[in-house]
Amino acid sequence: MKKFTLMGLLCAAFVLGYGFSRLTNPVNSGPRVTGIGGIFFRAKDPATLKAWYSKNLGIRMTAYGSTFEWHQGIDSTKKGFTAWAAFKESTKYFEPSDKQFMINYRVEGLDQLLAQMKAGGILPVDSVQKTSYGNFVHLMDPEGNKIELWEPNDVEYAKMGSVTTK
Fold it and tell me: CATH code at 81?
């Protein structure tokens, strides 16, 4: 019986200590990627493809694609969003990449993250675009994939609404 009590106390102490340390010293504090902000890809016929995803997979579409709403784990009262969008094959938005996909990463501390990257020799391919629903900038990864960094303003993004199209 003593062995189980001692083991239970040790487990409880570990769990409480770990939980407290995570609250007071988050592993990923500072400028960083916090999640996927969107999946963007080229399509021969974006309208038809959106209609197919809507009909067959039940994805509700807006004029731009779809937005998936979720609640942030650390503070479940805060909403977050992930975009899904098909672009025309001829779009210039992915340039200078010749790839079919572009991933949008949600970030915290965009300016600080860019400064860190610049110090490491990584420069954006454009300047930071500021919008009411967040700030955006683009980079190229080592394999020539264009990526988008988005420091979101989820409160303003939520106000944009969710008008659906077919």
Answer: 3.10.180.10
157 close to 81: Cβ distance less than 8 angstroms: yes
What is the chain's length? 166
- Whether residue 164 lies inside any domain: the answer is no
Task: Give the predicted TM-score (pTM) of the model.
Answer: 0.69
Q: Which domain holds residue 93?
A: 32-159
Of 95, 93, 83, which Cα lies nearest the Cα of 50? 83
Q: Indicate whether 146 pLDDT > 80.
A: yes
- Across the beta sheet with 134-140, the strand order is 66-71, 79-88, 32-43, 101-108, 146-152, 134-140, 129-131
Exposure of 109 by Cβ count < 10 A (0-12 exposed, 13-18 middle, 19+ buried)?
A: middle
